[in-house]
Amino acid sequence: MTWLDWSVVAVFGALSLAIGLAKSREAGQSLEAYFVSNRALGWWLAGTSMAATAFSSDTPLLVTGMVRRRGVWGVWEVWALGLSTMLAVFVFSKLWKRANVTTEVELVELRYSGRPAAFLRGFKAVYWGLLYNCYIIGVWPVTGMTKILQETTGLGREWAIVACIVLGTAYTAVSGLWGVVLTDAFQFVWAMAGAAILAGYAVWAVGGLQAVIQQLEPSTLAVIPPAFARPDVNPLESPFGWFLGLMAVQWWAWKNTDGGGIIVQRLVSCKDEQQAMRSVLWFNVAHYCLRSWPWVITAVVSMVLIPDHALLTPMGDGVFVDHERAYPRLITMLLPVGLRGVLLASLFAAFVSTLSTQLNWGASYLVNDGYRRFVNPRASERHYLRIAKLCTWLLAGGAMWVAWGTRSIGSSFTWILHLTAGIGPVYLLRWLWWRINPWSEIAAMTASLPVYYLRPHALGWLGLPNGLLVELLFMVGATAAVWVPATLATAPVSQGVLKHFYSTVRPPGWWARVGGGSRESLVQWIPALLQWAIASFALLATTIGPIRMLLTPGHDGWMLSLAGVLAWSLVLTELRRRPASP
Prior knowledge:
There is one protein chain. This protein has a two-stranded antiparallel ribbon with strand order 1-2. It contains 27 helices and two strands. Among the domains are: 418-517, no CATH class; 523-582. By secondary structure, the protein is mostly helical. The longest helix has 40 residues, at 114-153. The radius of gyration is 23 Å and the shape is globular. The chain has helices at residues 3-21, 24-27, 31-36, 43-54, 58-69, 76-79, 82-99, 107-111, 114-153, 157-169, 172-206, 209-215, 218-221, 239-253, 261-268, 273-305, 326-334, 339-375, 381-404, 409-419, 424-432, 438-462, 468-489, 495-505, 519-523, 526-551, 556-577, and strands at residues 312-315, 318-321. The chain starts with a helix and ends in a 5-residue tail after the last helix.
């Protein structure tokens, strides 16, 4: 890194700070302004902010590790989640916007009643807002940016962690969600440009994509994992069995199956239902279709340019191959002076956009659903804003502590997906079935951790294979064996609360107990589910098609891309024709 590179980084930092602080006065008016931007966001800004949050400094490193360890098909661990985020477009965006909550956790006392609901709200504020959020920030964006700074600047690991946290938290504490989303839009464009630049230089350095195709095995470049298994390997433990687990279970079983906290925060910040729905639709396109191809191409090229032994990294008394370092290693290997600064700034843009959102979102739980609800419910708005800023720095400190002990982004990502696999069904059913109560969620959340750690022993005792499909089904089934009896053994939610929730949100499903959920109301949601199915195909086709066009011979990539475009045209036509259905 030269003075020119650092000058580029400094210019980026100054622009981000200026944009982030531009709305600081408006954010300081109230908690609603600080956490949900006075519910005045348009679809493009809200959706771009979601995409910028999902595009963190760790994500290209995560994708690089997936591709280098498994092949291109390894990225399905990310792509499969598009099925659930598409469901948020056509079903849950409307429901969340109608609920008119400030946070996802606030829904608890709209949907449930009594002391169990109050306990659950406070518990989730601490569990998701503090513990889970600090873990996520530490193991993903902070660890990713730390590796980038180590590779590109030579900073020691500890100093890199401190630099990431301090620089990223500085404007978040004062700018609120308005500052976060405005900065996100600027940072997303910069980050995407950086990813495209590095992909272009990587392809040029290796002599073109044809050279890559010739040097790597076809199975490495395949988009779908091989369906065959060796005679000594159970089919469920094969790569294709892993793929089936993702497509058949993972997408609906994880905790964000109805949108998740950060997406929900943007949804409820939009002007109306249509803006909310379009924001998540744009997020899906930007998150999967636009950002996938430069990362996958760069990761594939890195397999040719950087051998595994060049990525050996000390860990304890031994070493391991840190595939995730290949991405920042290419920056120092391939880019000339000046462009290194552009790439470092682009990755810092991705890091800050995620960090700022996570900190603002976590603080919203701690203040809105913890401090104001249970500790000090009658304080002034100015007092709550001071607490919100204090919580932002508290979360940053917790994330720093977590990052100190983290080495692998990919293993942490997989761990989170598996751990929360039993919680998703409850989060889905609370919208669909009147009988779900606070104890359903409490039981599922309590059971998930012991079930996860008992899983390998239980599968061995039952004589079942260890493939992902079986493991996920076990997580869902064993967790359900706890929360279903807990639901049926405890009192249902009071009739008055159920009626108020149904009349406010108008969800689909089984609500006959409160005078809703008729056959006609269920039929009204069929067009939305059909749109979801077509849009999911369009999303995956226009994500995978271009990658297949670039990396494999034949015309199937072109045909898949064309089919995806046609499917998108059907979706958009239907949205214009039936904008308010159901």
